[in-house]
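note to self — DONT lose this again. spent like an hour looking for the file last time. sequence + predicted structure for the chain T wanted, 209 res
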Amino acid sequence: MSAIRLLVLGAVRRHGRAHGYQVRNDLEFWGAHEWSTAKPGSIYHALKQMAKQGLLRAYETAPSTAGGPPRTEYEVTDRGTEEYFALLREALTTYDQKMDVLSAGIGFIVDLPRAEVVELLRERLRALDEWRSAVTGYYTPEGGPQQLGHIGEIMHLWVHSADAGKEWTLGLIERIEAGAYSFAGEGGDPFVGVLAEDQENPFASGTSD
């Protein structure tokens, strides 16, 4: 699974309708250009590709009052919404997701109901436990990595990653169950994290389109 599809669909969905520069600006505001492949080229490519796949609907707009060529605005279709939530749920449950995929999932976690998020994270815990058990079936952490030569360091890393992932996930579940954040269907004032059209982005990469 690639994080870019989830990030782009989620960013467009937050606006309702957005052009490529808005999507790029939001993702840079979240720092996604540092922890994922969400660079300008991949963002614009993802927008065009998902429009061809029917996940986004493209609209040609008039040139801005400041001049320049028309921009294409995008809107998430019904198929795109289904894809978005499927990717989001997968990002939260699969134990071996890359860090950028998991980070993208956490970034959009409040788009799901609180109870569902807790259950998805508990699925992640079960998957982490199964993975750790599989590793420790032929590697005993108490014996230290040296028992398998330097290759044992790989097993040691896997066990450590499973333990750290479980600790982090348990902490997140605890915070969510204690009432942290505003989730789908709860009303309130959820954190959106999108920039207004004329709002300066302090974290912009400064690279050209």
